[in-house]
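Quick illustration, no need to memorize.
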Amino acid sequence: MDYSKLDGLVPAVIQDAESSEVLMVGFMNEQALAHTQRTGYATFFSRTRQKLWMKGESSGNKLEVVEILVDCDEDTLLVKVKRLGDGNVCHTGARSCFYRYLSQHHVVK
């Protein structure tokens, strides 16, 4: 993986393995990716807290990894997951972090 472009981080797009719905985007450093691979659960690096965190460690809504793909530049991951717990991934309680539409005056046509 190429961790050089974002100060040691790579974006990780999290996708429901069954429905293909994009659930969230997080960031992983080398340790977060290694922890994810070792445990089988999506783990990220929190840019605000400056530490590793496993998605769902407090809510129970863990993300069980089905497969991990890397893009052609080796600087972005696609992590296909099975949603555990109540299935809601967003910290707001929504199923996905992508539940709002960009206002019409910002949409490029």
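The chain has a mean pLDDT of 93.
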